[in-house]
Design brief:
This protein is an alpha+beta fold. The protein contains 15 helices and 13 strands. The protein folds into three domains: 115 residues, Beta-clip-like (Beta Complex); 143 residues, set domain protein methyltransferase, domain 1, CATH 3.90.1410; 60 residues, no CATH class. A hairpin with a 4-residue loop joins strand 8 and strand 9. The longest helix has 27 residues. It is globular and about 75 Å long.
């Protein structure tokens, strides 16, 4: 009998094919080997998950065994998390504490990421930085010509996102300059707009929610960010629910399964009940068969069907604007949203109904 022609050979081929159908194991790649060693040195051990490339979602984490509801998926020690506490303990800490007006927690984290990325081999966070995306696909990062092709509601949000990043960059230039003693190169060549855009997207797309106590050295904006190496390789599915929180007893961030995941399947978490516009804006992707999908109706579309001779047109628009009912008007799987129905109802009122005597 020729090699691999028997029952054992068939089983081996089926198993090999099964692995490739679900995802291709990437744990042998150098960047993941270094990342796992770096995490192990900080107290993280894992035998349940492995990095893999999946056909539909790209990079993610594969289960090495069948997971049942109630199983612990991952427990990442506090030492592995990158928070504002990490930043304050770094060489940036003194500069942040002395800067007035105080920087925001978000700005502190962005500054740290840029500085550590610039440090290269000298950065203790290099194994993590090496597996972060080099670029992001949030609409705020797109070229202007591409953004103009988006539907009006999404185009407006994308422009607002770009403006947010741009204003943050302009308002932080003086703070960046104050860090000059830490660098041999001009800080203007390190803390560039593109560097801040990358750092902002890293924080916006990859952090977990973790509330921290208010510190006097930061602005009053909520300090709720934590970057979670390896854990942040878990992709989103709108059809999955998990339990996720920081465990005060174990001092670890834990994720527990609420449903089954088959062996060699991709392990998902849920970022929230977001429609595809929100997913694209916040994370740079859309979900297939999203039960939260909705179509946004722009105010221009709404007004197109309002009778032009309606004498109460101006008053109706004023009411809608004052009560913030000209945005976030949607159609979902269940039909028009309550906000859209309310706006349509008001627009259809006659003069005697709008202003009853």
């Amino acid at each position: 009998m020729k090699k691999n022609r028997g029952r054992t050979g068939r089983k081996r081929r089926r198993k090999h094919l099964h692995t490739f159908v679900d995802g291709v194991n990437c744990s042998h790649k150098l960047e993941y080997i270094k990342l796992k060693k770096w995490l192990k040195d900080r107290g993280f051990e894992d035998s349940i998950l492995r990095p893999a490339e999946f056909r539909e979602t790209g990079r993610g984490l594969m289960a090495t065994k069948t997971l049942q509801a109630g199983d612990l998926i991952i427990s990442l020690p506090e030492k592995c998390l990158l928070t504002t506490g990490t930043v304050l303990r770094s060489c940036l800490g003194g500069y942040i504490k002395n800067w007035k007006p105080p920087v925001s927690p978000l700005m502190a984290l962005c500054t740290f990421l840029i500085a550590e990325k610039h440090a290269g081999q000298k950065s203790p966070w290099k194994p993590y930085l090496d597996v972060l995306p080099k670029t992001y696909t949030c609409p705020g990062c797109w070229e202007h010509d591409v953004v103009t092709l988006l539907p009006e509601p999404l185009r407006k949000k994308a422009q607002e996102q770009r403006t947010t990043i741009h204003e943050l960059y302009l308002s932080s230039k003086a703070f960046f300059s104050s860090l000059q003693p830490l660098f041999a190169e001009d800080t203007g060549t390190i803390f560039t707009y593109s560097a801040l855009e990358w750092a902002w997207c890293t924080i916006n797309t990859r952090t977990i929610y973790m509330k921290h106590p208010q510190r006097e050295w930061f602005s009053l904006e909520p300090d709720v960010y934590a970057l979670a190496p390896y854990l942040d390789l878990l992709n989103h599915s709108p059809n999955v629910q998990v339990k996720a929180a920081f465990n005060e007893q174990t001092r670890s961030y834990e994720i527990w399964a609420n449903s089954q995941c088959k062996k060699y399947g991709e392990v998902f978490i849920c970022y929230g009940p977001h429609d595809n516009q929100r997913l694209l804006l916040e994370y740079g992707f859309v979900a297939m068969d999203n039960p939260h999908s909705s179509v946004y109706v722009s105010s221009d579309t709404l007004l197109k069907y309002l009778p032009p001779l309606d004498k109460q047109r101006k008053a109706k628009l004023s009411i809608l604007k004052d009560h913030d009912f000209l945005e976030n008007l949607t159609f979902g799987w269940d039909g028009p949203s309550w906000r859209l129905l309310t706006a349509l109802k008001l627009l259809s009122l006659g003069a005697d109904e709008l202003f009853p005597s």
